[in-house]
Design goal:
heterodimer; A: alpha/beta; two-stranded antiparallel ribbon; 12 helices; 17% strand; B: alpha+beta; Jelly Rolls; 9-stranded antiparallel beta sheet; elongated
């Protein structure tokens, strides 16, 4: 896996602090002479400083999970149900909303920490002591799904930028060269589509590989071009013939790293053909494990498969896995009939996510796996129509668990109605800076030279939220 | 200490300096010191909290003015006195102050700050700001609607042309008052006693920079009712503001009655004029008067209005109670108007006693028989019964200036004229191209053309022997057409013994339509061509393909490169020719401006427009000029001599061109319109922008459109223009309005295009010859082919670069001439040596790879593509009940497997490129791609081994070989090598192939398949191994 950027280009582009790091890694790779992968952009790299997390899983909830109905309990909302908001609504609204709308769900205190979670997520609630809820997320002015999705996944709702997973891969490489380093499960074809896991101006090797898409049941999802066109014995014959031809060619033209790399890449893909199906085969999990996630029963089957798949991929050394609960088959966008929408969706994900956390923990993986539960925005505390809520980027909740996270905490606050952030606002750059920090990457030093300047995931902002770190 | 005395101190100092050459040099040094030591320090360590919108302690450290004004604790800096400056105390951690909070500055930084303050705290760009010190500081001007807050109370009349809902050219019988007082003005003929005034006419795109206007002509006169006169009587305060563009005319009486209040008749008391009139007196060579009646004027004097005819202007008159002359003030475009001799107004000192007439109220133009006609367009008419304060006036004027894009002097004066350091001005890329004679060399026999002289002298490359003929043929055929040579072409070349054999090949290739298909793709990479909008909707741009085909055609016709650039930037503005085809082609060319990404879901539509402008600036800058101009959107370019004022000068040009037609639901539809093709022919639909009302933008501080700075007139890059002037545009589009400053009336796009495409532009020719070189030799003479700035690479061979640029212009900007020159050189024909920087081995591009497979399999459809891609995307798009059609085609859609035309005709969906293209590093169309990456990853091998496309081509290749029953298997193997590599098979290759086929057919798993299928499978597998071979994938 070479990249035609000369080594000098490569180092120049990853200037500003990252250069030395990259240099070290590239020099180290020289020892992999036998593999011919002297400048493999995906080989594992040391981060800027030791990270608390080695891998990331991003449980992405498409459509906008209502914060005031899930992780941000607002008793005043029930108290003042049907009354107007006593202060001004934001400048940017997606559609007009009416008066305050009480949450249809009750909240319970969970765990030793006693953090409140609504009855939508009893099983996640049971894991709350491993979780840090951020109640003060702010998504800027991005009131539409597309820009908001791109904002949380790439740091920009407006310009094409590399995704969080691509930056992670760029910073750290990946552990298992027989599998893609960044995999997105069932990403939506909508609202930015592949841009949400793309590499943009970073080299294409850092882009996410998708398995399935939001329009297809994950049960039927495949990794493309993985199925051998011929049976293995026949393909082996073909590859041997090819290798002989390529080696003869190499002798004729002399020393050529990129030609050697290409020879190696065919062998690697042959191995990938063998290993990936194994990793992708959920039937290798015990019946008990499958049952704990909710595989094989509705309504949990699909998301359970995705979570279980994620665990298998992480275990096999994949650096970044995004587990999408995606439009159009799955969607939290409750403009009306909030009660039905959120109940149905929560039932699909509550058990799989809780089982996933428990499974990671029992395997000792939770310590160095960062789990993110996120959504593109929250929903308006004021009603849309009689029983719905509109898009609300001004304040919403996400949660983190695992590697380096102080479990059993809640960070930030919204006002009495959950309308605006009242305390410890977390912007998207702050959120991203914190994730990179947990991986040992300094968001100000993880830069890539493009179009005449050094780009960062966090552009010119971002502060690590040190209060949520363990 | 307050800030005023310091400001004047600095003013005096700088004025002194500007008159003194030696001191000027010193000031350049001081500027350099500031730019190298101080500005970066302030930006890095202070601006996070003390600039832009997040201001702590009310302290801004982003301008000289702000520095002196200081924050909550007082002025930050006392110029010349570091020890008295709060800034120094803070960074030295004195008096309980400690800044910056994240760590004390080091000693060198602290002493640099002290030195700078001691030297007067010079802040470049200050000179002009100080010159305009008479006006309030820029930051205090806030564009304010005329009826905002308190202003509404004194607003007596407000006529706005844009409030009219009439069709273009319709008569304005009544122009409704928007002040809330109901003082509508109407034509007076037959309506008012003695009225003669005819209705005016509504003009949708008036001479007020194409904004709506109400057109007055000889005889036009509108007046309000006398029953509801404005509340201005006696010796009153008042303000009149007019947005207008008047033309000179000859109608009698010999004065232009622009606006009148009260009775201009002789008063009984000669010291008491009875009216307030705005008029232009032709008898005094067009003097502008504010008249109280006969001879009671406050006048700007003889000839004072002459320079204002034919221009959109903002005229403001304020009057306080008291004598006419001494209490009236006139302002043009926000700036106090003085008499030509620089003195205050002339006139008489009568004290008015304004009295209303019984026949008309406020009146405009020829309302009654004695009134003076006006000719021209009025955009707004405002009357207040109060003399607005300077601040109120400037705020309202600013609002109107923004609305009409008038050059508002107070803001324009505030735009710092760029001052460049000697280092910036002498940077290599801005210097004129030097035409240097090729050097003489010892090894004359190696030289095939002058390129080789430069190469021999200065490249490290040795005079390597020429590559063998097959390698050379394969190289030049892929390079020029993106396809492999056919076996016949190989035979023809290898058997041609004439000395012109190679030259003939080059000519054949350049004449082939496949040349354009290859080289257009390089251009499409740099102009971020795609057929969907990206982002949320990723809507299909159905007619983008016409632009793609335009580019292919332009290369094939060898359209001169200067013309090529002008057509893409401003083809729609070129004077029409007799050829409908040419005119249509030029409109299609402007698709260049349209095919970029668009954020349709952005709620803030103006923001979305500005982001498109940014994309247009970025692509124009990097593709055509090799400069990263877009870096200057939020701040002056950090490395190059490009200022925010340059950015907004260009942004004004692009913002004056409209890509969108109207808003539909939550999305916005761009322009698609039919272009008539003459009688009896169907019009064709194109995707192209339309020139809209021109506007000058204000600098957006930190790129934020809600924090506006100075207004920048539309223009080009100052650092380049300083050495030679912007070229005036010619042709009927502008000649028709020759009396109007051309920079004000049009968008300026054509002027910009001509400026870029001028032979005198030092960048344009260099950038393009460098690109052509890059695609022939693997690496540009400037390795960063889209960045000729300081952060780009320096040219490895500046003399060769300039020599080529000079030849390019000399050849009439012929791209084919450049190709001929380069590929006929001995340098290009060299054998490719190990690790050569010249002519490195290259992998086929994604498109070449796909096309080569189709060519070898025999499936390639060589016909050009047309609307296939757009129509396919539309057929698959989702109907959401709006004009836009979101893309729903996946990267592995079967269409991509079966599509047999060349890859350039494949649909290009942003963020969803076909697998075959994305996997092999095709350009990401979200931005400019000057040079593609060349990665080698396992997913590519998986594609080559298992994808339906490669398997289909392998099968077709095998079928092609098996079709001729008369061939023996060894002959087939021979044939396969000819197709794939253009050469015969070696004995080893014959043996290996035979062994493979035998082994394959003996494998147990294949036995169940019937015979013809088995044999085909074996050959298919064999053929696939050829298509996957490095020899196939790489060009030497």
């Amino acid at each position: 896996m070479t990249i035609s950027l000369s080594r000098r280009d490569w180092l120049q582009r990853s200037a500003c602090g990252f250069g030395n790091l990259a240099l070290l890694s590239l020099l180290a790779d020289e020892t992999y002479a036998d593999s011919g992968l002297s400048t493999n952009p995906l080989s594992p790299r040391q981060p800027h400083q030791p990270g608390r997390a080695k891998r990331v899983v991003f449980l992405f909830m498409h459509g906008g999970v209502s914060h005031v109905d899930s992780f941000d309990h607002k008793p005043k909302l029930s108290e003042h149900n049907g009354r107007p908001l006593p202060f001004a609504k934001p400048k940017f609204e997606f559609a007009p909303t009416g008066n305050l709308l009480a949450s249809p769900w009750k909240f319970q205190k969970y765990g030793e920490s006693g953090i409140e979670v609504s009855d939508l997520f009893p099983q996640i609630g049971a894991c709350i002591d491993d979780i840090c809820v951020i109640r003060s997320m702010n998504g800027g002015d991005q009131v539409s799904h597309g820009p908001a999705l791109l904002n949380i996944n790439t740091g920009s709702g407006v310009f094409a930028r590399p995704s969080l997973g691509a930056w992670t891969l760029y910073g750290l490489g990946t552990e298992n060269q027989n599998l893609p380093g960044f995999i997105s499960l069932s990403p939506s074809l909508y609202h930015g589509g592949a841009q949400n896991y793309g590499s943009s101006f970073l080299p294409a090797s850092f882009q996410g590989t998708r398995i399935g898409d939001g329009s297809t049941n994950f049960k039927d999802a495949k990794l493309s071009n993985l199925t051998p066109g011929d049976d293995p014995a026949l393909q082996r014959l073909q590859l041997d013939l090819l290798a002989r031809r390529n080696r003869a060619h190499l002798e004729r033209v002399g020393d050529a790293p990129q030609l050697e790399a290409r020879i190696a890449a065919f062998e690697m893909s042959y191995r990938m053909q063998a290993q990936a199906p194994e990793v992708l085969d959920l039937s290798r999990e015990s019946a008990a494990t499958q049952a704990s996630y909710g595989v094989g029963v509705e309504p949990t089957d699909e998301y359970a498969r995705q979570c279980l798949q994620a665990r298998r991929l992480l275990e096999a050394g994949v650096r970044f896995v995004q587990v999408n609960f995606s439009y159009p088959r799955n969607y939290w966008d409750a403009h009306g009939d909030l009660r039905n929408n959120h109940t149905t969706n929560a039932k699909k994900v509550d058990q799989p996510i809780a089982a996933f956390l428990t499974d990671l923990k029992s395997r000792g993986m939770l310590d160095d796996t960062l789990v993110i539960f996120g959504t593109e925005f929250g929903r308006t505390p004021a009603a849309q129509g009689t029983d719905g809520r509109d898009h609300h980027p001004h304040a919403f909740s996400v949660w983190l668990a695992g590697g380096g996270i102080r479990g059993g905490t809640a960070y930030g606050q919204t006002d009495d109605y959950g309308y605006y952030v009242a305390e410890n606002k977390v912007t998207m750059p702050d959120f991203h800076a914190t994730i990179l920090h947990l991986l040992g990457l300094d968001h100000e030093r993880l830069t890539y030279r493009h179009a005449g300047r050094d780009y960062r995931l966090t552009d010119v902002d971002g502060e690590v939220i040190s209060q949520i770190l363990a | 200490m307050t800030w005023k005395p310091i400001a004047s101190l600095v003013l005096v100092t700088l004025v002194g300096l500007s008159r003194d050459a030696i001191a000027q040099e010193k000031s350049a040094e001081a500027e350099k010191f500031f730019e190298s030591r101080i500005r970066p320090l302030l930006v890095e360590r202070c601006h996070k909290c003390h600039a832009g919108t997040m201001i702590k302690g009310q302290l801004r450290l982003e301008s000289h003015e702000a520095l002196l004004k200081g924050g909550e604790t007082g002025p930050a800096v006392v110029a010349g006195k570091p020890d008295e400056s709060l800034l120094m105390k803070a960074v030295r951690h004195q008096d309980g102050l400690a800044m910056p909070p994240n760590g004390k500055l080091n000693e060198a930084q602290i002493s640099a700050l002290a030195e700078w303050i001691k030297a007067g705290a010079v802040w470049p760009g200050l000179t002009t700001a100080v010159a305009a010190a008479a006006v309030p500081p820029l930051s205090s001007i806030v564009a304010t609607p005329p009826n905002d807050g308190e202003l509404a109370k004194s607003l007596q009349l407000w006529l706005r042309a844009d409030s009219l809902t009439l069709g273009d050219g319709e008569l304005v019988h009544v122009w409704p008052d928007q002040s809330g007082h109901g003082r509508d003005v109407s034509a007076t003929k037959g309506v008012r006693v003695g009225g003669v005034g005819l209705p005016a006419r509504f003009v949708r795109e008036s001479t007020l920079l194409k904004r709506p206007g109400v057109r007055f002509e000889t005889g036009t006169g509108l007046a309000s009712s006398p029953d509801n006169p404005v509340e201005i009587r006696g010796d009153a305060s008042l303000t009149i503001i007019l947005v207008m563009n008047l033309q000179p005319h000859e109608a009698q009486p010999p004065y232009d009655g622009v606006l009148g209040i009260g009775n201009p008749a002789f008063p009984s008391d000669p010291g008491k004029p009875l009216a307030a009139l705005v008029q232009i007196n032709r008898g005094e060579d067009h003097a502008l008067h504010f008249a109280g009646g006969w001879n009671h004027d406050a006048s700007l004097g003889s000839g004072s209005f002459k320079t204002h005819y034919g221009k959109p202007i903002l005229l403001t008159i304020t009057k306080q109670p008291g004598p006419m002359r001494s209490t009236t003030r006139l302002f043009v475009n926000g700036e106090a108007a003085l008499r030509p001799n620089g003195e205050p107004l002339e006139g008489r000192d009568g004290v008015p006693d304004i009295q209303h007439r019984p026949d008309i109220g406020v009146y405009l133009g020829k309302t009654l028989s004695w009134a003076g006609s006006i000719q021209g367009d009025l955009g707004e008419v405002l009357v207040y019964n109060q003399a607005l304060t300077d601040s109120q006036r400037l705020n309202v004027e600013c609002h109107l200036a923004d609305k009409f894009s008038l050059l508002f002097k107070p803001l324009q004066n505030a735009a710092p004229r760029a001052v460049f350091t000697a280092e910036e001005k002498t940077f290599w890329a801005y210097q004129p191209v030097k035409d240097i004679a090729p050097p003489s060399v010892k090894n004359e026999s190696w030289v095939k053309n002058p390129i080789d002289r430069f190469v021999l002298r200065s490249l490290e490359a040795k005079a390597d022997p020429t590559a063998d003929n097959l390698t050379l043929l394969r190289r030049v055929t892929f390079d020029l057409t993106g396809l492999p040579p056919t076996p016949d072409e190989v035979t023809a070349f290898l058997t041609d013994d004439s000395p012109q054999a190679y030259e003939k090949v080059v000519n054949r290739l350049l004449d082939s339509p496949h040349y354009g298909e290859r080289w257009a793709r390089h251009w499409l990479d740099v102009v971020r061509y795609a057929e969907s909008t990206a982002n949320d909707a990723n809507a299909v741009m159905r007619f983008a393909w016409r632009y793609r085909n335009y580019v292919i055609d332009a290369f094939n016709r060898d359209l001169p490169y200067d013309q090529f650039l002008i057509e893409q930037l401003a083809g729609d503005l070129l004077p029409p020719t007799d050829s409908i085809e040419t005119n249509t082609r030029r409109i299609i060319a402007t698709g260049f401006l349209m095919v970029g990404p668009k954020a349709l879901a952005e709620t803030d539509k103006e923001q979305s427009r500005l982001d498109i402008v940014d994309d247009q600036i970025d692509v124009t800058g990097r593709a055509m000029l090799g400069l990263t101009v877009a870096c200057a959107r939020c701040h002056d370019h950090k490395f190059d001599a490009i200022r925010t004022t340059d950015y907004y000068a260009l942004a004004g040009i692009f913002r004056s061109t409209e890509p969108f037609q109207n808003e539909v639901r939550n999305a916005t539809m761009w322009w698609e319109f039919p272009v008539p093709q003459g009688e009896g022919k169907e019009p064709i639909t194109v995707m192209a922008p339309k020139d809209s009302a021109p506007r000058n933008l204000r600098v957006h501080l930190r790129g934020n459109r809600f924090t506006l700075g100075a207004t920048v007139p539309r223009g080009t890059l100052q650092v380049v223009t300083q050495s030679w002037p912007m070229l005036p545009a010619s042709g009927p589009t502008l000649a028709a309005s020759a009396t109007v400053d051309p920079n004000q009336l049009g968008s300026g796009r054509l002027e910009l295009a001509r400026w870029i495409a001028s032979p005198a532009n030092p960048l344009t020719a260099r950038v393009m010859v460098n690109r052509i070189w890059q695609h022939h030799f693997g690496r540009g003479l400037v390795a960063t082919s889209d960045n000729f700035g300081t952060r780009g690479e320096r040219p490895s061979h500046p003399e060769l670069l300039d020599w080529l640029a000079a030849r390019f212009v000399e050849s009439g900007w012929s791209m084919k001439a450049m190709h001929r020159l380069m590929v006929l050189s001995a340098a290009y024909r060299m054998r490719n040596e190990e690790n050569s920087t010249l002519l490195p081995r290259r992998r086929l591009s994604a498109e070449e790879l796909r096309d080569a497979m189709l060519a070898v399999s025999g499936k390639l459809d060589r016909a050009p593509g047309s609307n296939d891609s757009g129509e396919f995307l539309v057929s698959k798009a989702e109907n959401i009940g709006a004009m836009i059609l979101p893309n729903r085609v996946a990267a592995d859609d079967p269409y991509y497997t079966t599509f047999a035309k060349r890859s350039i005709y494949l649909p290009v969906v942003r963020n969803m490129l076909p697998d075959v293209l994305a996997l092999f590093d095709a350009a990401d169309p979200n931005g400019v791609t000057a040079q593609r990456n060349e990665t080698t990853v396992a997913s590519q091998s998986l594609f080559l081994l298992n994808s339906p496309f490669v398997r289909d081509q392998s099968r077709a290749f095998a079928e092609r070989l098996l079709a001729d029953k008369s061939l023996s298997d060894p002959q087939r193997i021979e044939q396969a090598h000819r197709f794939a590599f253009g050469r015969t098979a070696s004995a080893d290759e014959q043996t290996q192939a035979t062994e493979f086929l035998v082994a394959y057919l003996k494998t147990p798993s294949i036995q169940s398949r019937p015979e013809p299928e088995r044999r085909l499978a074996a050959w298919q597998s064999y053929c696939q191994s050829l298509l996957c071979a490095n020899e196939f994938l790489y060009v030497e």
